[in-house]
Design a protein that fits this description.
Blueprint lengths: L1 H23 L40 H11 L10 H59 L3 H5 L4
Length: about 160
């Protein structure tokens, strides 16, 4: 019987120490740390306007060949011919058309990137505001929260 009372006292003392140790420990507040993400500014260089130079075209045929040679000789310009067949001229025109279409596609891509950048800036600002609001709510909740043991502790 004497052994049983010693075991009861030791058990009660252990439980008492465990409960009293828990009542002195304050829970760590939850800290939310959210650093806003800053997106670098999109810097696009201004584009120079293309200013084309005048090109003088004239058609030389067997009928006007001598006349064109006389005009060039009279103007003092050297006589040089760059010749194209009708198929070569058509290919040149199609190449310029393809180049113009490619430039328009690149301009559309640039406009899409600018739109994406502006939209993502708006979304990023909204997300940062939401993070700040959540952090503020968490801070207020932590300050107002009392544990059950703190309310039961008569020595506070």
């Amino acid at each position: 019987m004497h052994v049983r009372s010693i075991v009861n006292v030791l058990g009660f003392t252990t439980v008492l120490f465990v409960v009293s140790a828990c009542s002195n420990t304050k829970p760590q507040p939850i800290q939310i740390s959210a650093k806003p993400v800053e997106k670098p500014e999109l810097v696009l260089p201004s584009v120079d306007r293309v200013q084309t130079r005048n090109v003088e075209w004239f058609v030389i045929t067997p009928e006007n060949f001598q006349e064109q040679i006389e005009k060039l000789t009279a103007s003092g310009k050297p006589i040089v011919f760059f010749a194209l067949t009708d198929e070569g001229y058509e290919a040149l025109a199609l190449n310029l058309s393809d180049l113009r279409a490619f430039i328009q596609q690149q301009q559309a891509i640039i406009v899409a990137y600018e739109g994406y950048y502006k939209d993502s800036n708006s979304a990023l600002e909204a997300a940062n505001a939401e993070i700040a609001a959540a952090a503020e709510q968490a801070t207020q909740a932590t300050q107002q929260q009392e544990t059950t043991l703190q309310r039961l502790n008569p020595f506070n």
